[in-house]
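Might I ask for a little of your time on a matter of protein folding? Here, with my thanks, is the record as I have it:
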Amino acid sequence: MNILICDDDKAIVDAIGIYLENEGFSIFKAFNGVEAIEVIDGQEIHLVIMDIMMPKMDGIQATRKIREESNIPLIMLSAKTEDYDKILGLNLGADDYITKPFNPLELIARVKSQLRRYTTLGSLETKSDVYKTGGLIIDDESKIITVDGEAVQLTPVQYKILKFLTANAGRVYSIEEIYEKVWNETAFSPENTVSVHIRKIREKIEINPKEPKYLKVVWGIGYKVEKI
């Protein structure tokens, strides 16, 4: 998922960027509200981290303009002396705030919490190229997979298998059907090929691959992604 970090302090932007990149997020940077609006207009941004006190356009003004067009999650960064502005920002539509200096683990937790809420309650699931069941979300336009708000990295073949089954959640497909849909060729003894990929996908998306929540086997028939 794409996260925009906006703060006039480059060191803070770089530090937050490192923390979030280590969690698998893609980072965009801005150093005032004007630049933040330009990034949002030109990129698909899934969450904004916005400082309050900045030149050209502060975080309050930027939040007001963002909310005119978008309901993406927005977390405000504030100093302890900015309580009034923090409350104003929340009233204008900011979803959360974090006070400087901040604990990196707290920041990451708040980001993931807002992304879970966003992907569960709205925006992303309304797009025609987004496939969702429970906490599993596949955004086919950006080729991003998340499970409970956390990004998952799959190989191209694994991605195609999971997307196909998720787009048809609840329906059981035989190994031969999966092979022919994903590889676009007639299946000749595809059991091992498909089974290996299924096992690898489970290792990446399931909390307990031996007791899968999403990608399940229907013995004697094939596989399905559970419709939740």
